[in-house]
Amino acid sequence: TGPVQLNGDISVVGSTHSQQSLRGPVSGPGGVTVASSELLLANTANDYSGPTVVSNGVLRPLTPAALSPTSALTVKNGGTLRLLSAPTSAEGWTDTDIKDVLKSSVFLDPTANLGIDTTLRDVTLNAPLADFIHGLAKYGTGTLDYLVPGPLESGAISVREGTLNIGPESALTLPAPAAVTVDPVRGKTGYLNLSGSASLATADLGQGINQPALYAGSTGSGVVAFTNTASASVGRLDVGRENGSVGVIRLAEGTVLHSRSGSGNTAFAGVDNGSYGYIQNDGGTFTNNGELALGLYTGSCGIYRQTAGEFAMAGGTIAPAGTQGGFYGGLTYIGRNGTGHAYISGGSFVQHGGNQIHMGAHYAATSGGLSVLTVDGTASVSANRIDCCNGNPNSRVLINLLGGTLSLRYIWRSAQTGSSATVNFNGGTFQVAYNNPPNLFQGGTACIIYPGGGTIDTAGRNGTPATALVGASGMGVDAITLDAPGTGYLAPPLVTLSGGGGTGAVAFAEVDPDASTVTAVRILNPGAGYTSCPSVTFSGGGGSGASATVTRIAPQAGGGFTKVGAGTLTLSHPSSYTGPTVVRGGALSIAADGALPATPLTVGGSDVPAKLFLNNRTVNVPSLALDDGGRIIGGTIATPLIVKDSPGITDLEVLCTAPALTPGLYAAQIVDTGLTWQAVQQLPLPQTNIELGATLANTPSSRWNPNHAGLYTGFIWNRSPTNEVWSFAESIDDNVMLVLDGETLINDGRWDGTTVATRTVAPGPHAIALRVYNHGGTGGPVAKDGWTTADWGFGVDRLGRGLKDTACYERLLDPGDGSLLTVNTNAAAIRAEVRQGTLRLTTGARPGLYAAQFTNVEWSTTSPVNPRNAVELGATLANSPKSQWTAKHLGIYTGVIWNRSPTNETWNFAESIDDNAWLSLDGVVVINNTAWNVTTVSTNVITPGPHAIELRVYNNTGGAGPVAQDGWTATDWGFGVDRLGRGLKDTACYEPLIDPGDGSFLTTGPVEGDPFQDVPVEIAPGAALDLNGLAQRVQLITGGGTVTNGALASGSALSPGGDDAVGTLTLSGVALGAAVYRVTLRDAGADILAFTQPTDLSALTLLPSDAFSLVAGGRDYIIATAPSFTGTRPVLSGFPSRWKVIVRGTELHLTALGGTCLTIL
């Protein structure tokens, strides 16, 4: 502060952002060099004569008088002259003062910078700065408007505090090495706004070279905003670097940001521990030449949020070093050792040229980190693949598919200790991309389906999840209440949900950027397995004081699975999701028992034909909906209800039967701070998630929360043939309600009392509903009032002793076989309804094999999949001469081969095919030969019954088909079976793989029977049941629709109006075997069978449908019409002897008029 005498030059140095000052007068022959940090000159009496050099540092003369009049001022080498804008020279620097110092003799090179401080007043620069092509730095609070139209060349642009507005017609080009920096000191905030058509560009130094960057929030808080059609093209992005820093970039609709990042020149959002980087795209275009990383080091946070617009990452071949344009190398990294989150709810997020997304990939010496990709709304996200946890133990990857589409070849998890990768389906779609491998989710990647459901679009390709599709277990976060909005938030803070016993919950904070407050907390993924409410913390975003509370956790069951798009998806693991299964397009192939859960099933309903391949399995579903273009093939469907309620044709090639019992009870748990016992009693009972018993009632108090309820419903069975007396008992804190067959047996609100109810229970099932609840404090089972355990609190005594002694009771828990508890009673018989369109029935065991031929394809044992659209009696192409083959020609034959003998037999299969032959028997490959001139023989023990078989034969180029080589002597057929098992290559030992036409050797499936042989079907007017040219047994046909194209075999029954009403049923192209016509007669009319062709009714039997039909008041009824009737008369059974059948022209009458009947059939 005192006088300073400079007898020589001094150099002022210090750390970045540090400040030093000379407040006393400075005199003498020496000079001052500001080499780093910032120097304040405050005295107006400075008269030193040496040079004043600003090189790399910052010189801050408060007024023009603070500069020595006898010292030559120069600014160079990245130095900055900081001038305080003021209305008078006594307060700072006037516009004239600033203009006077803007001389080439002062600013020596392009790296020299002019700093304008707007602390005292806002400043507008709206005219070109004469010959000034140097850098511009904004200091102090307030606003600097740079409105100079372009194009202009400029040096570095920096904002150290306050707001710098560039636009609306500015166009600035920054030569190397000039960068753009919005980086105040810690605790202060700087804003850079580009509006109108403003543009900003740093130099492109080419691939492989570290480029001038756009820095936002390296030390303090920096915000860059693009509006209107503003754009920037920068060397790379560096958003949020040091501990405590906050960097924000916002893109409005129509704006453009291009980053020339790449390998060795990575763009970052969130770098060091404690840093926060945020990029939000609300409709702009954000493109990258190469690498971008969100959340680099442990403790960092990088978030990319896109509501609309486009994100594009280059890919393909890396451009040569120094080349401008193209792919500069690198990947999109979402989270490395820090926390990274890409939340895309609109627009496109594309990795071009086969580029990948890496999540949770290792970077530093430490391990761990959280990587999140959320796809929501209408967003489209695409990449070659996503690699997870690569080289990074303890890392967690969450991929939340809430909406939109994620298009990839596959997702792969590296098997790192403690790491996990989970795909959370909750309304979104995974689309299989080009050239995919068979397994879509690899390395232990888990797939969980939440209430919004999940969709896989195979898009014309084939694959398998290679993991189970599981339903979200237990409870997830269902409500978050914002307690305090906080202040100072420049961007959404990171929301962390901790504790509660579960995993996978993800939430996102919404902010009002104008008010700088948090406005809401959006649940992106509820997570699973929570037993209590997790805590909520906020970090980053530049603000403080926001707080929130999880107020409710609730069951997350009920989500279903949908398959769309052409191509085949194979489910090879048991599934446990609890919502409906919908096959809208392509094929869903069931390759494991339990892969199709016992939930409602729909097949068809889109422009793409849909198929469900059961692969000879039995599946249990509560209902089956058949839509236009649907087809179910090869197995058994056990269901109480089949409905066809859409135009068009649906095909059934399966046996349909009544369902089996499902053990357990429908179950749900809810934790909600506002939940009361009164509300619990009004809640609807659960209908989706199934547990073997009343889990919460049998859980100790440590697992109960305040305002915690459990609901259970289903049926409890008395399996004895006689009435029994049973007792039910509970000892639960606070409330229990038990309802049996509609009667409330227990409704207890005491925490310390044991309640017992004893009732007589008849044989069979009884509807049961149990509700348990804890209001607050300790809850659950209590050892009180005779009850001696606190581990479980509800039981049943099937000896009916009526005591409070725990030893008398067993938990309300089924052993797993449905002997005590089931969710269904199987009381409703199976039935089918054809409400619209045509339902076409085909036996699941037609003679022959499903056959397909493809040309212009490469050899593969897995692709393409046999579409099963056609049936041939044998392996046609394998048994066709060379003249029937072309280049790249593939034949596939799939079905069942039968050993009809009662004992094991040894069979040989032999092939002599040019080029390839592959045979799978019961899932085991027994022939795989790629040699054109070798005869291959396989010897197999064949047990009695059906065996799955698939044969693939292929010609590449040149010679093709059967060849007489290596013992094989025929050239007109090349594949055969020897059912004597002689093991020779002699053609004479073999027969071609062909069925004689009766299904004795080859069939399309192993389930021999007609689809509706045990199913009554009602056909609505305008709808049709197509028998597909076959003689089929249908248990009962009712309704006013049409049966067409086939024959009704013995055991079929017809009752047009149903057994209690009259109606007309049309039969078009249908012959009748030994069927039964259950005729309904009423006073005003009767059932009518309306045939469209001449009809032989010789094998038909007529029965009265009900007792009323025997006492109908009419004497003559038309019961059938046809162009003509042939054959002998139908047999009457159950009618009084006075009733006769006669023909009058085209009408068949049932009459009791008496006398002689003319024309008796």
Blueprint of the fold:
Layout: E1 4-5, E2 10-12, E3 19-22, E4 26-27, E5 32-34, E6 38-41, E7 52-55, E8 58-61, E9 73-76, E10 80-84, H1 95-101, E11 113-117, E12 123-125, E13 135-139, E14 143-146, E15 152-153, E16 157-159, E17 162-166, E18 171-174, E19 180-182, E20 189-194, E21 199-202, E22 213-216, E23 221-226, E24 231-234, E25 236-239, E26 246-251, E27 256-259, E28 267-269, E29 276-288, E30 290-294, E31 301-313, E32 329-334, E33 339-344, E34 348-351, E35 357-359, E36 370-375, E37 380-382, E38 386-388, E39 396-401, E40 405-408, E41 411-413, E42 420-425, E43 429-432, E44 441-442, E45 446-449, E46 454-457, E47 469-471, E48 475-487, E49 494-498, E50 506-512, E51 517-525, E52 535-539, E53 544-555, E54 561-564, E55 568-571, E56 581-583, E57 586-590, E58 601-603, E59 610-620, E60 624-626, E61 630-638, E62 641-657, E63 665-672, H2 677-682, E64 690-691, E65 708-718, E66 724-730, E67 732-733, E68 735-740, E69 743-748, E70 755-761, E71 764-774, E72 780-781, E73 794-797, E74 810-811, E75 821-822, E76 831-841, E77 849-855, E78 870-872, ...
Parallel strand pairs: 1-4, 2-5, 3-6, 5-7, 6-8, 7-9, 8-10, 10-11, 11-13, 12-14, 13-16, 14-17, 15-18, 16-19, 17-20, 18-21, 19-22, 20-23, 21-24, 22-25, 23-26, 24-27, 25-28, 26-29, 27-29, 28-30, 29-31, 30-32, 31-33, 31-34, 32-35, 33-36, 34-37, 35-38, 36-39, 37-40, 38-41, 39-42, 40-43, 41-44, ...
Antiparallel strand pairs: 48-53, 49-52, 50-51, 53-63, 63-64, 63-65, 65-71, 65-75, 66-70, 66-73, 67-72, 68-69, 68-71, 73-74, 77-78, 77-79, 79-85, 79-89, 80-84, 80-87, 81-86, 82-83, 82-85, 87-88, 97-98, 102-106, 105-106
